[in-house]
Amino acid sequence: MANAFDGGIVGRGEAVLSLRNVSKNFGAVQALTDIELDVYKGEVVALVGDNGAGKSTLVKILAGVHQPSSGTMTFDGVPVVLDGPSAALKLGIATVFQDLALCENLDVVANIYLGQELSPMALDEVSMEIRAWTLLRELSARIPSVREPIASLSGGQRQTVAIARSLLLDPKVILLDEPTAALGVAQTAEVLNLIERVRDRGLGVVMISHNMEDVRAVADRVVVLRLGKNNGVFTPDTSNQELVSAITGASDNSVSRRASRRAGTEHSAGEAHP
Amino acid sequence: MSTVSKPVASRAPLMDRADERLQDRSGIAGSVRGFIDRVRSGDLGSLPVVVGLVVIAAIFQSINPIFLSPNNLVNLLFDCSTIGVIALGIVCILMVGEIDLSVGSVSGFASALTGVLWVNHGWPVAGAILGALLVGALIGSIYAFLYNRFGMPSFVSTLAGLLAVLGLQLYILGSTGSINLPYDTALVNFGQILIMPGWVSSALVVVAGVVLLLTKMRNAARRRAAGLSARSTGAIVFQAAVITILLGLVVFYLNQARGVPWMFGLFVGLVLLMNYAFTRTRWGRILTAVGGNREAARRAGINVRMVYASAFVLCSTLAAAGGVLAAARLASSSQQAGTGDVNLNAIAAAVIGGTSLFGGRGSAYSALLGIIVIQAIASGLTLLDLSSSLRYMITGGVLAVAVIVDSLARRSRVSHGRA
Fold first, then answer.
1. Domain C-terminal end among B260, B286, B313
2. Which domains does chain A have, with CATH numbers?
3. Does the CB of A169 have a partner CB in chain B at under 8 Å?
4. Do residue B187 and residue B245 come from a single domain?
5. Between A114, A122, A130, which is nearest B226 by CB?
6. Which domain holds residue B232?
7. How many CA within 13 A on the CB side of residue A105?
8. B212: which residues sit within 8 A by CB, 6+ positions away?
9. Inter-chain touch A152–B299, beta carbons under 8 Å
10. pTM confidence score
11. CB-based contact (8 Å) between B96 and chain A?
12. Which range (A10-14, A268-272, B84-88) has the least confidence?
């Protein structure tokens, strides 16, 4: 059963994070139904799907922001219940949210260290500022001053700050909700480089993206969600057409028909795509 | 093709000064330019209130020369301290974007409770004060519970509290309606006549200047050692000297009359303490964060409910402390304590001083500056022998202007990307 969701990649050792039969409803709306997801150490899982497919809801469940209505979650092989964002942070799950979740009235350093300030009774601003600069340098961030309030930064700069913040605690799993949506060319490349660097350090990365180019560039597996349900797991070399049809639902039961479709595509590839 | 070797920068750029778009803002001139830029972008700080204070002082002084006499100012400082402490609590609760409308009632209840426990029940005075403070904290924790558990807007819960606590105050005072606190006791002396000796207040000014200088110098040294930009020694010495001299002049002037009241000293001490808590502790940082973006703070793993609880409890406790001081000031616990304009003066002081009603932006000093403005108006109008009707109207007008300034500054900050 689990193999169906491994997308054929086996032998990666134990999944660092896995979900089984996770459902979430908001009132009458069933946002997620029986989601299964595995994240292995040292791999990038891309989570793709149309708007409203439940990607962000799933990320929020992984981040402890929402609690699932049913289903189980295991982290490092141990069943866990995330009753709040701090529980997820403590386990080592860091998240970059789509809305970034930054405090606009605080400066960059304060945002990066929000909730993790050094020496609580006499804030160590110097050490925090240095670490903030170091993190931002690693991301090749173009931020002129870390002592300006977030409100004065552009969208891309804010995105970089949010990513820098997620790296602060040396997490085991990083969730990135649309990490490159607001970024310029250079920063997108930097973020993709960073994702690879993080993966090579043995971390699990879950990345939501609408940009198939980015997905293809870094993902080891592509998990498709459609209307709150799993709709197949693909390898990054899957054709665009196939991914799009899984995302939009042009093929209804992609998991069962995948193998045959794949065979068909390989045969007709030469003629269909000159 | 001979390339002239470019002059290499004489020293490695500082870590936080590496970006070429940054303008140099070191030294005294740089600080002044930075200040002007901040004000132009709507980050006014305490500038409006200082300007307002100068205008108020000029007007009243021109009408009645007694206004700025040292004696009148000493009385003004006595009057500032009670509501000022309450306003300090209001700053706390405004920082998280909530409000407490019951601070007047809570202070009145605390004042009544002090009298009842101390005079009627014969408790030691310290026990009575502690009891009043604890009851204040309890009231605050009830608001916090209602807010966190039921999502009850603080506007409504504290409005209900305003009436309920006022009822409690009338109830415990009973039919007599007021209790006179015995004269010649430590508490009443503290509220009415205890003044710092001249050498103590002068010494405190010098200590304040030295501490300011040393902490800024140490901080700058640490930053330089870590490869970060730091303010130049000249700028720091200049700032510390200006502040010390200004404070010294004020104290010297007050010492021409009786001097600086101990009660005002307590108030300023609380302001400094809260300022440290707001700016230099994790609690203050997350308090500001919750006021700015509650959901972001929650997702950063902050226990948002505890932050709200701490703000509510601190606000009510400081309101109770203000009530105890008011009882000492008036040497009585009466049904009138905490009623009338106490509530709105405390809130108005925080807002006039520059703490935003929208949350996430404020400073402990706003309670100090704001209450001085309000008491200056009250004192000036009393000297003119004007009725309280006019006093209310004028204070209301000043509050309206303060809120307009806050709103305009906020709009300007948004358009300058500093909201």
1. B260
2. 17-238 (3.40.50.300)
3. no
4. no
5. A130
6. 195-260
7. 23
8. B239, B240, B243, B244
9. no
10. 0.87
11. no
12. A268-272
